[in-house]
Target: Adenine phosphoribosyltransferase
Amino acid sequence: MADDLRDRLRHAFRWTDPGDGSEYLVSNRSGWWRDPLILSGLGEALADLFRDPAPTVVVAPEVTGFLVGPLVARALGAGFVEAYRAGARRPIAEPMSWAEVPADHRGQRQLLGVREGLVRPDDRVLVVDDWASTGAQVRALRGLFGTSYVGAAVIVDECPPPVSRELTIRGLLAEKDLDYGLP
Ligand SMILES: O=P(O)(O)OC[C@H]1O[C@H](OP(=O)(O)OP(=O)(O)O)[C@H](O)[C@@H]1O
Model:
């Protein structure tokens, strides 16, 4: 099943040239969510990267993490906690724990925050996201959870291998798998 899913992910992904003179192509991941077989298999496939010991809670950053994270939490029988990006919405009323994100793939510094008390000291925390590029979001969340952090499951891991090892990031696809989506 995992290999079939990887093939579907490869073929449903597109790079878009924004056509504004940009030197960069923009990732279009919407084909992943549009494919019913990807959507139904993705949670299990990402959960399989971290079954033993089973995480008790999935934490994922907005916005795409809010889509992928619950799929994985459901597959693991774990709970889900949102990690909000500061400034992306109206202020959250409840007390928050904030982590500074070192400069990410856009060179931007951000804050990621979770509501206090949702992650307990005896939890085993799995971070889930669609993509790890520099590992900045994952690193920030690991800093929030300390020894409760078990790793990060992502669809695409394009981090340098030493970063993936250091942060225990595991992915279904690597950068080279995305060549199918070139314009
Ligand atoms: O490893 P990093 O350098 O931290 O980059 C990874 C982040 O980049 C993407 O976010 P992006 O803001 O592009 O997309 P999103 O808002 O759709 O989640 C992706 O969803 C990760 O959260």
Q: What stands out?
A: DSSP finds six helices and nine strands in the chain.
